[in-house]
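Internal QA ticket QA-208
Title: Verify multi-chain structure generation after dependency bump
Assignee: T.L.

Test input:
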Amino acid sequence: MSIDLKTIKHISKLSRISVDEKKAEKLAGDLNSIFDFIEKLNELKTDNVEPLTSVAETTLKLRSDEVKSKNLREQVIKNSPKENEDYFVVPKVIE
Amino acid sequence: MSDITKQSLSELVENIKNKKISSSEVTKAFIERSEKSKELNAYITEDYSNALNKAKQFDEKPNLDLKLPGIPMAVKDLFCTKDIRTTAGSKILNNFVPTYESTVTQNIWNEGAILMGKLNCDEFAMGSSNETSFFGNVQNPIDKNLVPGGSSGGSSSAVAAQLTPITIGTDTGGSIRQPASFTGTVGLKPTYGSCSRYGIVAFASSLDQAGPMAQNVKDCALLQEVISSYDEKDSTSIDFKRNDYSKELTKDIKGKKIGIPKEYRVDGMPKEIEDLWKKGIEYAKDCGAEIIDISLPHTNYALPTYYIVAPAEASSNLARYDGVKYGFRAEGENLIDMYEKTRSEGFGAEVQRRIMIGTYVLSSGYYDAYYLKAQKVRKLIKNDFDDAYEKVDAILTPSTPSSAFKIGEKTNDPVSMYLNDIFTVPVNLAGLPGISIPAGHDAKGYPLGLQIIGKAFDEQNILNIAYAMEEKINFKNNITDWWIK
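Actual output:
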């Protein structure tokens, strides 16, 4: 298989990472060599294999639905690059 | 005492408990040595004055019943530390100061240890040489311009150079064991679910585990005892009976069955690695272990599986870095433009590459062909280990397919960099514990490691085997302090 520049542009859009022509070409080269390596998995027949989603063979514990930490507003906003009083500030979304 | 930094953790603990040295003396000694070792670039953030204050406080009212009484230590910069900058080696978290503490580091402070600083690592733990860090390369104390391994490269360099008596790293595909092997130190990746992931900057959540790195097996066992705990803040933390690993440590491994997997004899493996492995088998026999040939038939498929599963999970974990809630922001013309510029300028090349791979394998039309396929092969890899453990108690392999390489040697070829983790990745995919111990040197005098892989939750057993073999191997690290002028 081959990942072309159009595909790179599409993935970059999905990833929300802007990519210029030069970077796109470099990425296409890298991803193609990585996927050549990944294609090895196609040697294996896996039709009847159950996918492994977690190695931790345990059932999730239930807990009561109660508030354990309160008044975190200041902490939550503390590392924001831009805030106004208790709000995160982002570029205008609605015209 | 001029040779404080040469003492092992166990010696320091004993000397502090016997009041032969104070926490302040120890802390001062390690800080002084760290200050003289800036060329290694092992630290991202230093917290020396706080450390000295805490040591002083400890000495005024020493609690000598603790497991790490007044012991200073630096930790990988992937663990959130309250009020101390935590960067994950990334520009995007350059100014991030957590308002909470990771469970693993909290466990350490609860036992009396003192934070000295945060150690360099590959960006978001994605790398095998510490070269992807936004904060620059780390030098391996073994030789100039040699990588210390990765992603816990600052940690391995700092332990080998004795800038910290012990440390913790994280291991998603080999990030504790490979750097330990490259620096002649000991590193343990515990069973998935043994150490809480709460407060660790996430990379690939089904694979990430924190673990100890130390100068010897006994120190490693003690630190594992401290950091491993059940934690309801991590839904994959497992509630099982944990041993007092250091107290129960024994060199008596007579009759233990140790498996040798033939598939780990990979093409192009240097003869010195093959020889090291053979020597390791002899050491294990000398300790009274029984050697059994085993097969792990899907070994060759582990790396391709890992390079689907890990980037897929990373692409989803790293979606949170959007320039809104925390971290770096690049201004943009509109919201989407702001997101795209923030992530393009904030993440380094390797992280962007992995996010792209992950996004692609999870994208519409490709999910079944890649992600689901990888999860199925992951099952086959785990089944291999389950079958092997019907016959053996542990498995012995080399830790890495080569010794440490030069800075810059593999940066232009991602696949050759990924091959470094060929012996460590299967262990993460199966969720098992694995330990790397130094076992010899190559022709250049660089250290080489052996890996012992255990059954799930059987850390005690692999620590015991490592402890017994360590004595027979009698490894000496050759550190010349070349970076100290």
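Spot checks passed. Chain A touches chain B through 50 residues (CB under 8 Å).
Status: verified.
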